[in-house]
């Protein structure tokens, strides 16, 4: 008996030493793994083996080292110049020019997206973290099938975990129509044991090599506020026209190479009429999806907006919004390269801000360097405002996030809790002329484990649009005061501190 205990102790010690040595460059992460291993020896070991196994995939590093001459015009401030210069080596292809349209919430985004998809003539590339088979998902799928039958070349990528429930019957219909479908890191044994912790968090659509969509909005009814469990959904997306599109195309192409073809070869031989009838009967019961040219589309969009009250004035006004001239840098977060590009970009923006920083994020679990950068920005006179959700998606992120609020409030950061519904936008505005919009959150998963895409935009007009939306969101928010924060109960504080221990793993 004693021999067995001694043997287990030796094995446990060796395992912990291996963890400590392997994660020496990230001591906080190593300590978290060791803590979980001590409390839950077996589960902790399994989690570490799954989450830390290297993925043997040849992944391109989409950074451009040769753009020393790319600079902003002299009309921009020094902080914008320094940020653009500092990010140049992390960008996909340097500083680009283009036109940017800010899209607020799902109603605006889906209206613009479906309009652009209908007008596609040559090619459509789509990549989504979440792609559902609900009302809006079915609508977009039908639209893609119709465009494919009209001769448009279409490629479709979905994430293997977040979109795992997308029906195979729909994939078959898409492939029968000529759409090429692939999946990143599918849940296929035994390979998923080494890829489960890596996800494709990007939201990218590229159309005809002339325009693109990216930001925080996936494809699902919840982004229209139609999920009764969530309610109103606040988000931000972008429509981009011009040479910037080529950078998003490059990211899509790189992800296409590492994605796995959908395994539906045994289904493809079936007659498309059979699968068409099957999915029509089972997709939404008796619910019919409007066809491409059906006037019911505008009625359906209006009904969604009417039911939710999510449209500001008239949703059709989004089509007349002006595209803003801008300089843009595109960055890709890649979990298979050692440099956390998105994290360093956030750090650069915060440290170079001279007047104002407005941050909107649903998940705020940054590392010590980001926290110190924010506190130092306040110390040098920068007004820093942080907008986070009052109610977050269930999990440990919410309690972990709250542990950062106290020191930030004491440092002078103004924190607001969005109380109208779910806040999912990922936006940062620096000095009223630099803006960042993308898919990445302020957490270690976005910084190190997910494929992410972010647009850094240099434009007073775009910054103004995003700032106006930020100010509007503050009207639906609760200012967090230090005295209110200090009134938390002891159980709340214990829960938050326990969640904070897992911050490097979130």
Automatic annotation (TrEMBL):
Keywords: Membrane, Transmembrane, Transmembrane helix
Segments crossing the lipid bilayer: 6-24, 31-50
UniProt xrefs under InterPro entries: PLD-like_dom (IPR025202), PLipase_D/transphosphatidylase (IPR001736)
PROSITE patterns the record matches: PLD (PS50035)
Protein transport listed as a keyword: no
Residue stretches making up the PLD phosphodiesterase domain: 196-223, 419-446
UniProt protein name: Phospholipase D-like domain-containing protein
Species this protein is from: Alicyclobacillus fastidiosus
Taxonomic lineage: Bacteria, Bacillati, Bacillota, Bacilli, Bacillales
């Amino acid at each position: 008996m004693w021999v067995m205990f001694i043997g287990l102790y030796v094995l446990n010690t060796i395992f912990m030493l291996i963890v400590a040595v392997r994660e020496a460059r990230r001591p906080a992460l190593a300590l978290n793994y060791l803590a979980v291993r001590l409390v839950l020896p077996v589960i902790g070991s399994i989690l570490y083996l799954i989450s830390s196994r290297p993925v043997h995939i040849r992944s391109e590093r989409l950074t451009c080292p040769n753009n020393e001459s790319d600079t902003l015009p002299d009309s921009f401030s020094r902080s914008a110049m320094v940020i653009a210069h500092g990010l140049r080596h992390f960008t996909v292809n340097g500083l680009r020019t283009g036109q940017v349209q800010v899209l607020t919430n799902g109603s605006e985004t889906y209206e613009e997206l479906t309009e652009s998809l209908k007008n596609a003539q040559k090619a459509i590339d789509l990549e989504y973290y979440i792609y559902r088979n609900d009302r809006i998902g079915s609508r977009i799928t039908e639209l893609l099938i119709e465009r494919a039958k009209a001769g448009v070349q279409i490629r479709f990528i979905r994430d293997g975990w977040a979109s795992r429930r997308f029906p195979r019957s729909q994939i078959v219909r898409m492939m029968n129509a000529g759409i090429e479908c692939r999946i990143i890191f599918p849940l296929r044994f035994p390979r998923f044991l080494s890829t489960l912790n890596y996800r494709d968090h990007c939201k990218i659509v590229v159309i005809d090599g002339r325009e693109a969509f990216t930001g925080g909005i996936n494809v699902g009814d919840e982004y229209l506020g139609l999920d009764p469990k969530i309610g109103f959904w606040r988000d931000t997306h972008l429509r981009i026209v011009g040479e910037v599109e080529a950078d998003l195309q490059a990211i899509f192409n790189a992800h296409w190479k590492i994605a796995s073809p959908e395994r539906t070869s045994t289904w493809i031989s079936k007659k498309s009429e059979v699968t068409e009838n099957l999915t029509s009967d089972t997709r939404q019961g008796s619910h019919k999806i409007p066809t491409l040219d059906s006037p019911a589309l505008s009625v359906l969009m209006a009904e969604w907006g009417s039911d939710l009250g999510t449209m500001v004035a008239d949703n059709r006004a989004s089509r007349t919004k002006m595209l803003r001239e801008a300089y843009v840098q595109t960055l890709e977060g890649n979990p298979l390269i050692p440099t956390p590009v998105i994290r360093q970009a956030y750090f650069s923006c915060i440290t170079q801000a001279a007047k104002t920083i407005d941050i909107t994020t649903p998940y705020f679990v940054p590392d010590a360097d980001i926290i110190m950068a924010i506190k130092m920005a306040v110390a040098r006179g920068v007004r820093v405002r942080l907008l986070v959700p009052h109610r977050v998606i269930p999990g440990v992120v919410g309690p972990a996030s709250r542990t950062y609020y106290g020191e930030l409030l004491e440092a002078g950061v103004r924190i607001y809790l969005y109380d109208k519904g779910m806040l999912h936008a990922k936006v940062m505005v620096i000095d009223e002329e630099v803006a960042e919009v993308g898919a990445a959150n302020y957490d270690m998963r976005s910084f190190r484990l997910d494929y992410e895409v972010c647009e850094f935009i240099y434009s007073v007009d775009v910054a103004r649009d995003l700032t106006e939306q930020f100010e509007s969101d503050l009207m639906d928010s609760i200012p967090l005061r230090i005295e209110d924060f200090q009134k938390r109960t002891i159980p709340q504080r214990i829960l938050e501190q326990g969640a904070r221990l897992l911050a490097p793993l979130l």
